[in-house]
Structures are given as structure tokens and as C-alpha cells.
Write a structure and sequence with these properties.
Elements (H helix, E strand, L loop, with lengths): L2 H7 L11 E5 L2 E4 L4 E4 L2 H4 L8 H13 L10 H14 L3 E5 L2 H18 L6 E5 L8 H6 L16 E4 L4 H7 L4 E6 L2 E2 L5 E2 L2 H14 L2 E5 L13 H5 L5 E4 L10 E5 L1 H4 L15 H16 L2 H22 L3 E7 L2 E6 L4 H9 L2 E2 L1 E2 L4 E4 L7 H18 L2
Parallel strand pairs: 3-15, 5-6, 5-7, 7-10, 10-11
Antiparallel strand pairs: 1-2, 2-3, 4-12, 8-9, 11-12, 13-14, 14-17, 16-17
The structure holds pyridoxal-5'-phosphate.
Pyridoxal-5'-phosphate (PLP) binds next to helix 5.
Amino acid sequence: MNIQEANQYLTPNYARFPITLVKGQGTRVWDDTGKSYLDFVSGIAVNALGHAHPAMVKTISEQAATMLHCSNLYYHPQQNELAKKLVSLSGLDKAFFCNSGAEANEAAIKLARKYFHDQGVNKFSIITATQSFHGRTMQTIAATGQDKVKAGFAPLPQGFSHVPLNDWDALEAAIDDTTAAIMLEPLQGEGGVNLAAIEYLEAVRALCDAKGILLIFDEIQTGIGRCGSMFAFEKAGVKPDILTLAKGLGGGIPIGTMLATEKVAVSLSAGSHGTTFGGNPLSCAVALTVLDVIEQEDLLANVLARSTQIKAALQDLADEHDCFTAVKGDGLLLGLQANIEVSPIINACLDNGLMVLGAGPKVLRLLPALNISESEVSEGLDILNQSIKGLDL
Ligand SMILES: *Cc1c(COP(=O)(O)O)cnc(C)c1O
């Protein structure tokens, strides 16, 4: 089926590239014409181990032959083990499983409200950052600090306000008696690869403690090794009360999770929340495999080394071209800030066999798999360089 025909059957909500992908292996993918691409997108930070990693193939086939689903009416070993593993990695106490990032944030928002409700306290509002991205459900577009995701969907759920990231005075001014939680991405992905300052996060934590406000970190994009530590919050040394994860956790199999402290998690009492598919044996078995491979293959060290390699090359580009103004991000969530639209660069890279993406119109974003090799990074950076040269920017 060609693209034109496909568009006859698909809702038009995605502005897709005119490419049909049919196969992936490691950091390389192929389209239906046989053309290959180096993948510096990883399905938007999802394919943490690249494509068709043998350990994932093994787990998926074994689990398919054992049990795919049994609902949350029963216990099963994969969910039990994954909860234990994530609790031990994060230092939080309890895990709830769902199927996507937006669902994990929905759970976090519901839990924050329920926690104060259970204490008979009238706190319900949540402060998030301008340029944040928290998902596409009604609650999570209300939480998202970007107007473009909200247009046309009014009336939106109430109780959200937004302040610029790293702006302390704005945050203090936004807090009132109804504030239940502050929800932040330690490094904004979709909103432009914007890093929260460590001092800011420390101050936010102290403020939350002083005022009895919950701190929620949305690590759906930054978590699971993406920033060179298992979670970005470890680098800042600031622990949230609620943590949400998704994207890289399943390495391509849909899974999301919300982790919370014991004190907060008790409010997610029996019957208060749930999902049919969430935490099924397949997704949990695969997530356990992703976490195992990150440890066995020492991928956090690789993330840091490849990050240094890419940052140096991006800095060279920024030094060479006036249109690039800054290198942004951390680990393998990196951005090149431009003062022009980056879509021609993305298209030129695609023509030349490299997949990169944007983070807003003027930031070029790179999200390679955590296990990308040094030579694949060099090859990708060469293509990026050639593509930029060819555009004569
Ligand atoms: C991708 C993303 C989400 C939404 O995840 P979905 O799986 O698309 O629902 C939420 N928060 C952040 C930070 C993300 O990057």
C-alpha cells in the first residue's frame, strides 16, 4: 500500500515523513524501497536497546509462549519482579503499571488529588512548567505548558497553572493554598531540550517539603538511562514523591509506570484506579529485560561516552555556523538550538540516510539508542555535517 492509499484509511493527526519503515536492526532501519537509515530518533526515545535486540526477541517469544495477559485480577511474577526492581532502582516504594506516558501522568495527577482528599485537605491544583509536555489525554494536555496541544479541546480540566522553568520567583508566586503538586520534567524533551537547573530542583524540593506540596517528576523521556543515570533525578540528587516513566522502559513494547512513596501511594486504594492492560506479563517481562541489559552491557557508561562525543561535534557546528546558538541537553537527549527552522536539516538528513527529529521548530534533537556504538555515532555525525553543508546555511 502506498502512502496516498494509507492516508485514505488513517486519521490525519500525524504530520508523518513520507517514508514507510519495514525493518530495524540495532541502530539501523530500512524503508520499503530498501534504503537504510541510521536511527538517531529511536521511535522518540523508546527503542532504548535499538531494534531487534536478541535479549528482547528472546523474552518476547518466550513470554508469548507462556502467558501474555491475565488482567490485574491476579498476581503474576513478571509484574511483581518489575515492581521490586523499579522500587530498588528509584528509592521510591510502590509501583503502578499502565501502558503509556500519558496514562502514567494521569495516575500521578489522580494520586496527588486523592492524597489530599484522603486527608480532608482542599488541595488540588498542580503547577507545571511552560514548554512542558505531559501527554495528550485531557488531563495531560491541561498539564502541558504549550498552547498548541490544547487548541480546540475546551473546556479543559481545571486546576493547572504554568510557570517558566528555572524561574524561582514565578514559582513562589504561583503557589497558593490549593497547590497539591509541582510537576516537572528534569530535562524537557518535546518542549525544546531545556534542562532544569540543579539548584532550582533543590529549591523546589525544599519548598515542597516546607509547604507539604508533592513533587512529581515526569521522567517519561529522561528516565531509564537516557541521561546517563537510570533516572535524571539522581544526577540532581533530588528525589520526587511521584515519578512517571514510559518510553524507554519497554524498549518498544508499550508500558508506563508511576512510582510513589509509601506515604502517598496508600491513597491509590483498592478500586480507586486501574487499567485492564497495565502491567501485563509481556510488557513487564520485556521491561525487566531492558533493565537487565542496561546493567549487563554497562549502557549508562556508553550513554555518557557517546554524549560527550556528540556534544563535541554539535559544539563544532555551533562554532562554525551562526544559525546554531547553543548545544543543549544531557546524556543521549541532546539538542542543537538554532535561530532558524530546523525542518530543512531534518529532511536533508533523511535524504542522506540519517533520522533526527525536532523539539519545537528551532531545536534539532538527537535521541539515539543507549547502546549506539562510537563508530555509528561518527557515521551519523558525518551525515549531519554533510547535510548541513549541502544546505549552505
Ligand atoms: C512522550 C512523553 C509523554 C507522553 O507519553 P505517551 O506515551 O505519548 O502518552 C509525557 N511526558 C513526557 C516528558 C514525554 O516525553
